[in-house]
Design brief:
With 273 residues, this protein is mainly α. It has 3 domains: 3-87, HUPs (Rossmann fold, 3-Layer(aba) Sandwich); 91-199, Orthogonal Bundle (Tyrosyl-Transfer RNA Synthetase); 207-267, RNA-binding S4 domain (Structural Genomics Hypothetical 15.5 Kd Protein In mrcA-pckA Intergenic Region, Chain A, Roll), CATH 3.10.290.10. It is 46% helix and 7% strand. Helix 4 (36-51) packs across helix 5 (64-76). InterPro entries: aa-tRNA-synth_Ic, Rossmann-like_a/b/a_fold, S4_RNA-bd_sf, Tyr-tRNA-ligase, Tyr-tRNA-ligase_bac-type. GO terms for molecular function: ATP binding; RNA binding; tyrosine-tRNA ligase activity. Belongs to the class-I aminoacyl-tRNA synthetase family.
Length: 273
């Protein structure tokens, strides 16, 4: 698109329609600024529907306004309006915000089975029903049966959550590999056995790690060892409750590593570095 195209596109919509968006409306009434580029964004996204001559467009519920702008623009350009289908947003591991890598409350589809299982087992009992509905093909009546069984104490939440985790994991890894990971996880978290799992990497830190300070930060050490992509990612993990020292959640972003001590560090309550 050249600038003339942008001007033509802008003429197809008006400010009154833009203010129908809930976020824009609230900010306008509160006297908070709304930049022009924020108005242009739904227009440019909506123009994709025009250029691609979409019949159907899918998106999260947070994209409903933008998708409907696409419908309106298609009519303005003399095309048949697309059908719009929105889906609920997946709530992250924290149980409050949408799942997002930047928030550190996510399950990565390329993570190891044991890491994936550990993260899924960490969700709340209430949140697991949402995951059953959005991430599995289990029929709704069967989900309801499990919910009733848990309410009557006929089924244990951990048993149901394990089933959920397996249903999700089997979409990305082989069932045998997943079962092996689950058994390893259970071995690690058996209160009667605190043995260090066989696949845990044992690393002795060299003098270079203590050259600048006698107690370097854990997130810095993990970053230097390439266990996490960056120090900032480590801080995000800690904020999201995703880093553990043995069985204890790390809450201090400046947690120090002391020379000569041993640490068993986990990413997610059930996984290991």
């Amino acid at each position: 698109m050249n600038f003339e195209d942008v001007l033509v596109l802008s003429s197809k919509y008006n400010v009154a329609r833009m203010l129908e968006r809930d976020d824009f409306s609230k900010r306008y009434k509160a006297g908070q600024p709304i930049s022009m580029i924020e108005f242009l964004y739904p227009l440019v996204q909506g123009y994709d529907s025009v250029a691609m001559e979409c019949d159907v467009e899918l998106g999260g519920t947070d994209q409903k306004f933008n998708l409907l702008v696409g419908r309106d623009l298609q009519r303005e350009y003399g095309k048949e309006a697309q059908c719009v289908l929105t889906l609920p947003l997946l709530v992250g591991l924290d149980g409050s915000k949408k799942m997002s890598k930047s928030l550190g409350n996510y399950v990565g589809i390329t993570e190891t089975p044991i890491d994936m299982f550990g993260k899924l087992m960490s969700i709340s009992d209430d949140l697991m029903w949402n995951y059953f509905e959005l991430l599995t093909d289990l029929p709704l009546p069967e989900i309801e049966n499990r919910k009733n069984g848990m309410a009557k104490k006929e089924l244990h939440p951990k048993e149901i959550k394990t089933e959920l985790a397996k249903l999700i994991m089997d979409q990305f890894s082989s069932p045998s590999e997943n079962e092996e990971a689950i058994q390893e996880w259970k071995k690690i978290h058996n209160p009667k056995s605190r043995a260090v799992p066989d696949d845990v990497k044992e690393i002795k830190l060299g003098e270079e790690f203590f050259a600048e300070t006698p107690e370097p930060l854990l997130v810095w050490v993990l970053s230097k060892l390439s266990f996490i992509p960056s120090v900032s990612e480590g801080r995000r993990l800690i904020k999201a409750g995703g880093l553990y020292l043995s069985e204890d959640k790390i809450t201090d972003e400046k947690f120090p590593i002391q020379k000569g001590k041993e640490y068993l560090v986990r990413q997610g309550k059930k996984g290991n570095f």
